[in-house]
Specification:
single chain; alpha/beta; TIM Barrel; 11 helices; 12 strands; about 45% helix; globular
Amino acid sequence: MRIKTCLVFSFILFSAPMLNLIQAQELGLQLYSLREQMKLDVEQYHEIINQWGIKFIEGGDTYGMSDKKYKSLLDKHDLQLVSVGGSYEEMRDDPQAVIDKAKFFGARYIVTFWIPHTSGEFGENEAKEAVEVFNRAGKLVKDAGLTYCYHPHGYEFKPYGQGTLFDYMLDNAQHFDFEMDVFWVKMGGGDPLAILKAHPDKFPLLHLKDRKPGTPGSSDGTGDVETNVVLGKGDIDVAGIIAHAKASGTEFLIIEDESSRSVVQIPQSVYFIQTEMEK
């Protein structure tokens, strides 16, 4: 579903006074949330992000522009990339190129979002190889003054030893941290808040998204994106997660809404975060 420009701006104008309260230094947006909208007008939707009261973004795509031109666009709309994506292959084969890109944009984090594997067959070998790749690349990233994170997608929660494969990854992460996507952790059968409490220093970044009640879980990293709902309206304890993030010093709460309703839902999620942050 694509939202017409006039509707987008009318919603923004109605919501703007409410959204100006947000503590922007703690709030971000994953640009994948606007992947369809960016096909229509890249500059317009970056302007809209600013009007939502969001100053920090997580990306990886420059939408066909050179790095220099895209950075100029970000500067124009007072937006700062806090993290850039680095694919598994890039971080395995040429992490320095991703480090250079992150530094060019002034990003403090590099995030890998997926470990290549045959669907449904992520296992011990894949987890151990990934940990080796991430520790090796993470050491280079750390030496460059940045932080490297892995973003789980739920397939890491298969049983392993006395816990799960994700427990193995957490226990063996020497030079990398994690960006928890609370939706995908829940989808994989994990308890996002319990994991955050057990490992308070491992998650400097959080992807906040909520899940429609009754949504079935999955063990392969797939699911219906239309089950993404406004924060606080689903079956994930987002309020508890935000409270823990405040106490533990999580640096960025990054909204990601993969649904076709993202343009309407994101400002409501911004307001929910602000309300919880003020408690």
